[in-house]
Structures are given as structure tokens and as C-alpha cells.
Amino acid sequence: MIELGNYNTLKIVRNTSVGLFLEDDEGTDILLPNKYVPETYEIEDDISVFCYLDYDERPIATNLEPYIIRNTFALLQVAEVNDYGAFMDWGLEKHLLVPFREQRDKMKEGQWYVVHCYLDEKSFRLVASNKLNKFLSNESLTVESNEEVALVVTSKTDLGWEVIINETHKGLVFFSDIYKKIAVGDITKGYIKNIRPDNKIDVSLEPIGFKSLEPAAIIIYDKLVANNGVLDLHDKSDPEKIKKVLQMSKKMFKRGVGILYKERKIEITEDGIKLI
User: Fold this and answer.
1) In CATH, what is the architecture of 6-62?
2) What residue spans of 110-171 are helical by DSSP H?
3) Between these two residues, 197 and 176, which has the higher pLDDT value?
4) pTM: predicted TM-score of the whole model, two decimal places
């Protein structure tokens, strides 16, 4: 079955004047227009393409790579606003519609928004929404404490940054757990720090517990290499200075330094640390 809004691996079955026709295992075919036909191919070859609806609402295939696929979240820019809604630039010729009913606030041309792409069951069209909570649920959790997860940063609150976890759940990264610059739309990895009794999830951008020691040491070592083998940081350094230089807490810095020192990778001086 050809899935609109996603990548499909299909078989090349025939060449025509308008392009290649591709077919799935059920015999359903779709056109890959001439402008997307690869330079070399053979009939019966398998090819990976993205499938969506063209301007005439006909299923079509392309080798262009969209910025978002079906049932995922991404930061997109509004290319145009008209009587139907906002149209997002998602890397394809035909823009992705966000109907007015799916806009949390009226979208403005040129602005960026985190949206969710889905297939509208009534119109059978791919659309997007920035009413993100409709597509997230913490009722039945699929994550555990300390687990590494995929994050999409969505908004800033008084306590920290709200994030989408594994395209499924909603979480929060507290300001006290942030040691690097982040912004709306960032895609990064994180770690489940705490699951509360009400299923609210606290997230860390750094590994939890002992898992954090090795990455911290690597970051410090790499910074030393890039800085001619010396850093004017030590256990008396201001935490904000450590955060600015290494994007980590002072506690993690001291742990990382301890590992490098035990492995005889660094020497601790009055002015800081340096590579041996």
C-alpha cells in the first residue's frame, strides 16, 4: 500500500512520456514525473520516493526530501496566508496547508512554527496543525527513567523548555538542567530524568548519573585539544564561566576532570588544566 506523506519503496514498472510509473506490492501505481526521474535506472528496479498529492490532488511521487513527514513534528516557515489558511514551506513544490481551525493563533507569513503533519481522514489530504497537544499524550507512557529519547523543542515557559518526546509524549527541561543554547524547533537527544505520579515527565539534555561521566570527560578533552592543550578552568572557577565555555554544570566539569586526571590525560595547575 502506498502511504501518502511518507517514503515508499516501489518498483519501476514502465516508462512513459510523462515519467516513470511505480508500483507497490498490491499493484497500485503512482507517477514519478520526468523532472524527478534518476539518470540511470532499469525497469523492475526498486526506488525510494516520497508520495503526496500534487496541485490537482493526484497522488504523485518525488525524490525531493521534505522537511517533515506524516505523523511527525518539525519547525516550518509560513510561505503564504490566504482564505484557506497558512501554507508552510516543507521543501516540496506544493506547500503544506495549516487550516485556520488547526492554528493555535493566527499564523503570519514569514514566521516559523512547530507543526504536526497528518492525513486528514475527511478530505484524505495531508495537512498540518500547531495545536500540538492534540497529538501528544502522557496517559500511557512508553518511556522509562534514564532512557535516551528523541526531543523536539516546542516552547519556553517560566520553568524551562517544553519538549516533545519520541513524537509521542510531552516533557519539560528545567532551566537548571540546561547548559547549552537551545531554541524552538531544535531536534536533539535527551534523557528521562523523572516521571512524576501524574505522568508529567522531567527531561535532561545530559545523561543521568554515572552515564554522564564519560561524555563530560570527552567534551573537556576535545575542548583542550581545540584550545592548544590548555583551559583556564579549575574547581574554583565560576559556574557561569564553565557553563559558557563547556556548556555543562560545574558538577559535571569536576567529574570529567577527575576522570581525565585518573587516566593521566591532563595535569591540574594553579591556572587551570592542560593536556599531558
Assistant:
1) Beta Barrel (2.40)
2) none
3) 197
4) 0.78
